[in-house]
Design brief:
The chain has 132 residues and is α+β, with helices and mostly antiparallel strands. The chain has one domain. Helix content is 27%, strand content 13%. The chain has helices at residues 5-16, 96-99, 111-130, and strands spanning 68-72, 79-81, 85-88, 93-95, 108-109. The termini are far apart.
């Protein structure tokens, strides 16, 4: 008997979330969470413009390794290391723990994701301004 695609996907997700390169595909979009499975993606509540695809934190992102605290790039969905160079929602630049301390975290992006987000934001603002 052959395994269905759904069974294969579910089995792959059992531990795929433990590797950052497997994100965001390793996290299901819908719930509920299974007893020992990963948490599904939460709603995006930090982005009033509707540009970001993912919540900026995920409880299972901290399970990848000691350098991961649960922060996720909201545009691409890949977990951020605590020592990684990022840009916050407000444009602050530096290592994640410097610009988004663990006691007061803020949405932070990979530099290329931040640039892409800014382009999309400018396009939406122009569209709104000129009613395109």
């Amino acid at each position: 008997m052959t395994e269905t695609q759904d069974q294969h996907d579910r089995r792959w997700r059992e531990d795929a979330y433990l590797t950052a390169e497997n994100w965001p595909e390793a996290i299901p979009y819908i719930g509920p969470r299974t007893k020992y499975g990963v948490y599904p993606w939460g709603k995006v509540g930090h982005d009033q413009y509707g540009i970001d695809n993912y919540s900026w934190s995920h409880p299972d992102a901290a399970s990848i390794g000691y350098e991961y605290l649960g922060d996720v790039c909201p545009l691409c969905g890949i977990p951020l290391k605590s020592s990684e160079y990022v840009i916050t929602k407000w444009g602050d630049r530096g290592e994640l723990l410097e610009v988004s301390p663990s006691n007061d975290p803020v949405p932070s992006y990979h530099p290329h994701c931040y640039d892409e987000r800014q382009e999309q934001l400018q396009q939406r603002q122009l569209q709104a301004e000129f009613n395109i």
